[in-house]
Every structure is written in C-alpha cells, then in structure tokens.
Specification:
heterodimer; A: Rossmann fold; Alpha-Beta Plaits; 6-stranded mixed sheet; 11 helices; B: alpha/beta; 2 domains; 4-stranded mixed sheet; elongated
Chain lengths: ~300, ~375
C-alpha cells in the first residue's frame, strides 16, 4: 500500500536518512521506533510527500508520490509532532478550515466535524479557543484535524509528546480503536517503547538514519532469545560497582538506569550469586533485583549500545 | 485560495491589534505633521541683527513672506533664543545684513526646507548686490526690479510639491505617512506565513490537496488586500473629512496604490526569504521601512535632498515612485498614462522581488 525503496535524505553533507526500506499493508499498525534524531520525522516527511528524498522512492499503491504527490494527499492524514493549529481560533473553526481545504463542505463538513470531535471527546469544548485548551486537549484536536477527511492511512509523529498520562492513555486508546475497529492503517513513530509495543503489529527500529531491525515484537525480542536482563535497583549510584560488574566474564553489557543498573547476560547463566558478592564488596545497598525477559528497549540497547531515550 | 484568505481574515478578526495600531499611527502622524484641514503654512520665527536697518528689515520680511508655504513672524531676539533653548519652538532664524543663522533646538522635518528657502532668498539678494557694486549705477536696483516685473520672458518655477517653489506639508504627510505605515501592515501580515511555518500549520496545508501556488496566492492576496484597503481608507478619510487634497483623479490613485502595495508585498516576500525566523523578520521590518521612508521621500520631499548618493539610492526604492505618482496626481491631476514610468518601475520591482523571494523561501524547505 505505502512503501519506501532505498530512501535517502541528506541536508547539505549531513545524512539524515540512509537506505530506508519499509512498507505498510492495509489495516496494519506499524511502529517506527528510535531515539530523538534517529531520522524518524524526516522519513515520515518523505513518506507523506512533504519533502523530496535525495534518493530512492515512495510509492502509494505502486505510484510514485515523489513524482506526483497528489496521488496520496487525499488518502493520507498526518499528525505532526508540533501542535499545528491556529490557536487564536476555536477547535470548531480549525476543523472547519482544514475540512474545507480537503474539499468538505456544507452538511457533510459539519457531520465530519461532529464525528471527530466526539471521537476525541471534545464536543462540549468545541467553541473554546484552542489556546485555552490544556496540552492534552490540544494534542487531541491535532489528531482530530488529521482524521477529518477519513484518510485510509494516518501517520502519527510522536503524538503524545509532553502530555499527562491520562491524555496519553486516551490518545493511545483512540489510535488502537481507529486501527482495530475502523481498519485504518497507522504508522506510529515514537521513542516510547511501551506505546509502540501496545499499538503496533510490526515495528521498525531506526538509529542514525538507518533501519537497524524490523519485525513483530516477538521477532524482535527473539534477537535476544539467548539472553536475559537483570534489573537492579540501588539506593544510590555506585560507579565503581558498574566497573566491577563489567569485569564479570559472562556479563554482556551493563547500563546505568535512573534507579540503578541493567545487566544483559546469557540466559540461565545463574549470575546472581556473583552479582550479590560484588555488591557486598562495594557495600552497595540493593533495593530490588528482577530477572526479566528482554524488551524492545533491551533489543535497542543490544543493537546500538544506547538507551532509546539517550 | 479563497479559504486561505477567509482564514486569515478570521484570524485578523480575533487579533486586530496590529492593523488597528497601524491605522492609529497613520492618523496620528498625518495629523501631527499635516494639521487639521486648511492649507497651513510653516511658521518661522525670525529676528534681526543690529546690522540690518529698519527699512531693510521690512523689505526682507516681505520678500520672505512671498512664499505660500512659509510664514515668517518677527520676534524679539531674547524671546526667540529662550523659546529655542526651552524647546518650545524647533528653530528660529537670525537675519543679518548679508548672512543668516538658524537656531535649532532639535532636528526637524521642516528645518531643512526653511534653511533652503532662506538660503535661496539671501543668495539672490547677494548676487544682485554684487552686480550693483560692479556697475556703479544708482538706479540699478530699480532697473532690476522693473526687468523682473516685466521681463521679456516670464519663468514660473513649479516644484512637484505644488505652488511656486513652495511645499505642501499636508500632501507630503498624508502620502508619506500612509505609505510608510502601510509597509508595516503589509509585511507583518505576510509574517503570518513565517509564523505558520514555525507552528507547522503551513505543512499541514501543503499536505492537503490544495496546491502550493494557491496557498502562496492566498497569503499574498490577503497581505495585498489589507495594505491596499488601509491606504485607501486613510486617503478617503482625510480627503472627505479633513479636506486634504488628493487630486480629482481617483482611479489613478487606486492604480498607484495597487502598484505600490504589490511592490511592498513582493518586498515582504523577499525579506521572508532572507530571514531565518519570525523574530528576525520583526527586527528587520522597522529597519527596512524607516530607511526606505527616509531615503524615498516619505518623511521629507526629495526636492529638499541634494546628496547625489541618497538621490541615486532613492531611485531603487518603490516608495520613491509611489510618492512621485501620488503627488503628480494630486498636484498636476496626472492620468494613468502619464504615470506609466513610476507605475511600471513599481511593478518591475515587485516582479523581481517576488521571484527571488519565493525562490528563497522554497529553497529553505
């Protein structure tokens, strides 16, 4: 349905996106996961026909949108990362304007406005100025605008950045319903692993402008099928402990986390005894120890040596 | 395109502060400089040095007051000096036998005009005196006066300001200030385009089925419409309410205003192409508009400027041609055909700036 082939984008001499191949099938929810600066936004800008690739192609049902962007525009909804609304206007006025530029008018336009307002739960506040909305409500209207013309595919660029957990949950549930109940194809970019895990059937992991892994969540985590994660929570940071643990032969990687550290070790390596002994040697107070199956975060860590939110 | 224009009008309705303030500034400055109706003359306090005898004082005062544009009033030296020192009056003239001095409190728009005028009167008088000394004829002065009164050739000099070598402050202030403040309105209206690029709404509109040229045309038409209406409303208001003379050829005024507005819209696009942010644009607009108004004759008539460099630069500015065309209509009742040169230069300026501006904006994407 929507496919990129050897997509590359350079800004002056900086390579932002390099040799990206990805595809979306009808009704799928696909995640594009990667840290800030990985090239996700540039990739979706090319996929939505906003910017032209330096090399490669983007096709919509086999037709190049690089050559003719109009083939996709009526079928595509884009939710940008920023709040792309006229904040001095009301939600209704914003929706009316964006509906009109998509060719909607009269009763059909009003019906669609009512429908999307209901979907984002802002019918009662439709005549309030957008600038008076909370961050979460602005994000919801930002999504509503993209849904107004009933697109076949919706591209969402980090739609939950900077909002409270309640609004975030509302948005995620809304995206899930759009995909499951209305069969809308979704391309969801985020650096929040849990959002992508919750919503997406397939996931592309991006770093430094390249796709470094792709597949279903199971396929991706199976990269680490021979490994497991030991999550240690400490009462305070112990830098010398990290250095000491890295010296243990079986430990594949040690990463400091907000509350302690994370060890990636071979499965069933029975290393806990050694870890406790090292901690005891450094008088480190352990608050908790958990042995986990690998997550997408661990996969990213394994592939890049960095955390998703670095 | 229509939807884009309507959207901008809707936004204007919600936040009309900028446009209203530009209207208020235009009205304020035109009133301040041009006064409320009637053909007012520039008041010039003058006092005489002891070297000027009483008879010559009266002759000089009569000669100076022959102009329709200036009103010289004799005052006491101490009063004039005190008033200038306190800033109550901007300037005064000290007339001496063969020279004059100007007492100046602050730089003033009219000071240069007064200086030029008095200089001209003294230069003529000194020239006659010099010849009189050379010919040694006691009746020389009478002969010169007779020749001047009934000369074989009568030469009438008329400046583009109107009158015989005078200067119409009302027309100057109305045209100058209106065109000057319209630059702010037009370019700040175009600034919405830069704002939309920053907030992301521009990309959202570009991703819709509306073509890019329609989006550009919508923004350009809106800026043109706002600027054009602002200028016309001010002209009509001052013409009908305060009897400011803008000439009787109103269609020519409309065409001139349209050409000027187009050139400024295009200049705005060029500036948008050159700046990297809305903040930079906001900083650049006052610099460009004030410089353009100073160099292009919006603050004072170009006839008062003798510097060749400034005159050469003024030929590159659309406001010079806007002022020239409007004065030609108001003073000489010129028609559109006679204004072909300034109008076509403004259009050419607009086409060039528009082409370069859009190109620069598009390259930024």
């Amino acid at each position: 349905m929507l496919e990129t082939t050897n997509l590359r984008k350079t800004f002056k001499k900086q390579v932002a996106v390099d040799d990206v191949n990805l595809y979306l099938e009808k009704g799928e929810a696909v995640g594009l996961l990667g840290p800030n600066g990985a090239g996700k936004s540039t990739t979706i800008s090319m996929m939505s026909s906003l910017i032209k690739p330096t090399m490669g192609d983007v096709t919509w049902h086999g037709k190049s949108i690089v050559e003719d962007p109009s083939v996709i525009r009526l079928h595509l909804g884009v939710v940008p990362q920023e709040i792309a609304l006229y904040k001095e206007l009301t939600a209704h006025e914003n929706l009316k304007f964006f509906g009109k530029i998509y060719g909607l008018k009269g009763k059909k336009l009003e019906n669609e406005i009512a429908h999307v307002l209901e979907m984002v739960g802002l019918t009662e506040r439709k005549n309030d100025l957008v600038k008076n909305y909370s961050g979460g409500m602005q994000r919801r209207i930002n999504i509503a605008v993209a849904l107004l013309h009933e697109p076949e595919v919706i591209i969402m660029d980090e739609p939950t950045v900077g909002i409270d957990p309640q609004s975030r949950n509302y948005i995620l549930e809304m995206v899930r319903r759009l995909n499951h109940e209305k069969g809308m194809t979704v391309l969801y970019t985020s650096h929040y692993m849990e959002e992508v895990e919750r919503l997406c059937d397939r996931i592309y992991i991006m770093d430094n402008g390249r796709i470094i892994a792709s597949g279903t969540k199971q396929e991706l985590t199976s990269i680490l099928s021979s490994e497991e994660t030991i999550l240690i929570e400490l009462d305070r940071p112990y830098p010398e402990l990290t250095l000491e643990l890295e010296k243990i032969e079986e430990v594949l990687r040690v990463v400091e986390t907000d509350k302690g550290m994370k060890l990636i070790v071979p499965k069933n390596s029975r290393l806990l005894g050694k870890v406790f002994r090292v901690a005891d040697k450094h008088k480190a107070q352990m608050v908790s120890v958990n042995v986990q199956v690998p997550t997408l975060e661990d996969v990213f860590l394994h592939l890049t040596g960095r955390k998703l939110r670095d | 395109m229509r939807t884009i224009i309507l959207l901008q009008l809707q936004r204007l309705r919600r936040e009309p502060g900028l446009i209203l303030s530009m209207f208020a500034m235009t009205f304020g400055f035109v009133f301040l400089i041009g006064g409320f109706g009637g053909g007012e003359r520039i008041d010039v306090p003058i006092y005489f040095d002891a070297s000027v005898n009483v008879e010559k004082q009266a002759l000089l005062l009569d000669e100076l007051n022959e102009s329709d544009s200036f009103s010289f009033t004799e005052t006491e030296p101490s009063t004039a000096k005190k008033q200038v020192a306190l800033g109550d009056i901007p300037y005064a003239v000290k007339a001496m036998d063969s020279n004059y001095q100007m007492l100046i409190a602050t730089d003033n728009l009219n000071q240069m005009l007064v200086d030029n005028y008095v200089h001209q009167i003294y230069a003529n008088e000194l020239r006659i005196q010099e010849v009189e000394a050379g010919v040694n004829d006691p009746d020389f002065r009478d002969k010169v006066d007779r020749y001047l009164a009934n000369g074989p050739i009568a030469l009438t000099s008329v400046t583009s300001e109107g009158g015989s070598g005078g200067f119409d402050l009302q027309k100057q202030s109305l045209f100058g200030m209106t065109l000057f403040f319209s630059i702010y309105t037009i370019i700040f209206s175009l600034g919405k385009l830069a704002e939309e690029k920053r907030t992301g709404t521009w990309n959202r509109v570009i991703l819709s089925p509306v073509s890019k040229w329609q989006v550009y045309l919508g923004h350009l038409s809106y800026a043109f419409m706002i600027g054009f209406l602002q200028i016309l409303v001010v002209f009509i208001f001052f013409n009908y309410v305060f009897n400011y003379d803008i000439g009787s050829n109103f269609p020519a005024v409309i065409v001139t205003v349209a050409c000027f507005t187009f050139s400024i819209v295009a200049l705005g696009m060029l500036m948008l192409g050159l700046v990297k942010s809305l903040e930079q644009l906001n900083a650049l607009v006052p610099i460009v508009s004030v410089s353009m108004a100073m160099l292009g004759g919006a603050y004072w008539p170009m006839e008062a400027v003798s510097n060749q460099v400034i005159l050469a630069i003024s030929k590159l500015l659309p406001i010079t041609y806007g002022m020239e065309a409007l004065k030609d209509i108001a003073i000489y009742d010129q028609g559109i055909l006679s204004l072909a040169e300034p109008l076509s230069i403004m259009i050419l300026f607009g086409v060039l700036c528009m082409g370069i501006g859009i190109n620069l904006i598009e390259r930024k994407v």
